[in-house]
């Protein structure tokens, strides 16, 4: 059970740190200035949490497979519970929240709630796609050759998230404010 709690703790801690960095700091202000529209900011935050979660989960699973304490697989009634289950649950909750228009900017919901929903979406997508090869093969091929399908799915989906936000708006140079003189 330590594996489950560690992944959940990792996701929660990462989410809190990311939210704190983006809320009320110069990084959050720069993000707001560089990416002015809310949907692109949500894509940016989701892609950050997606890649960070993927890297963290791969590290945890490496620890489990190599028997590095305190990590071990989740077993319930002799059945191994994969982390994609938690990813699917998160995706369902975030999808439901967005259907209810929570944090999507259509009402007075705060930027904080929108960022939280985006982070949770990225975490859920990473947990789910990290085990894409399991869906495809209907057996655990995480570290096998067929497991490469998960890496490919993560790269493709991560690129889609990143392209939606990190593309042109983030890389554009901020226009300089010129000291305009009044014509004589």
Supply the key terms.
single chain; mainly alpha; 8 helices; elongated
Helices and strands in order:
Blueprint: H1 2-22, H2 26-34, H3 38-65, E1 75-76, E2 79-80, H4 84-99, H5 111-129, H6 132-137, H7 148-165, H8 168-171
Antiparallel strand pairs: 1-2
Helix pairs in contact: 1-3, 1-5, 3-5, 3-7, 4-5
Word description of this protein:
There is one protein chain. The chain has one domain (2-170). The protein contains 8 helices and 2 strands. It has helices spanning 2-22, 26-34, 38-65, 84-99, 111-129, 132-137, 148-165, 168-171; strands spanning 75-76, 79-80. Strands 1-2 form a two-stranded antiparallel sheet. A hairpin with a 2-residue loop joins strand 1 and strand 2 (79-80). Helix 4 runs antiparallel to helix 5. It starts with a helix and ends in a 13-residue tail after the last helix.
**What order do the helices and strands follow?**
HHHEEHHHHH
Any idea what the radius of gyration is? 19 Å
Q: pLDDT average, as an integer?
A: 81
Task: Give the count of helical stretches.
Answer: 8
Spans of 5+ residues with little confidence (pLDDT < 50)? none
| Residue share in helix | 55-70%
User: Strand portion, in percent?
Assistant: under 5%
The tally of strands reads: 2
| Sheet with most strands: strand arrangement | 1-2
Give the number of domains.
1
User: N- to C-terminal separation?
Assistant: 76 Å
Shape: elongated
Biggest β-sheet: count, sense, barrel?
Answer: 2 strands, antiparallel
Q: What's the oligomerization state?
A: single chain
* Secondary-structure content class: mainly alpha
């Amino acid at each position: 059970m330590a594996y489950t709690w560690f992944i959940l703790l990792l996701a929660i801690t990462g989410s809190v740190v990311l939210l704190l960095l983006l809320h009320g700091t110069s990084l959050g202000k720069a993000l707001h200035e560089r990416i002015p529209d809310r949907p692109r900011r949500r894509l940016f935050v989701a892609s950050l949490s997606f890649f960070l979660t993927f890297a963290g989960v791969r590290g945890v699973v490496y620890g489990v497979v190599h028997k590095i304490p305190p990590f071990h697989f989740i077993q319930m009634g002799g059945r191994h519970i994969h982390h994609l289950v938690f990813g699917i649950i998160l995706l369902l909750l975030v999808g439901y929240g967005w259907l209810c228009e929570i944090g999507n900017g259509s009402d007075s919901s705060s930027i904080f709630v929108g960022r939280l929903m985006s982070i949770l979406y990225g975490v859920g997508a990473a947990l789910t796609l990290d085990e894409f090869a399991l869906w495809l093969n209907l057996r655990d091929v995480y570290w096998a050759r067929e497991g490469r399908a998960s890496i490919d799915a993560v790269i493709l989906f991560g690129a889609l998230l990143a392209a939606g936000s990190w593309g042109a708006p983030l890389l554009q140079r901020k226009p300089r404010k010129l000291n305009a003189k009044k014509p004589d």
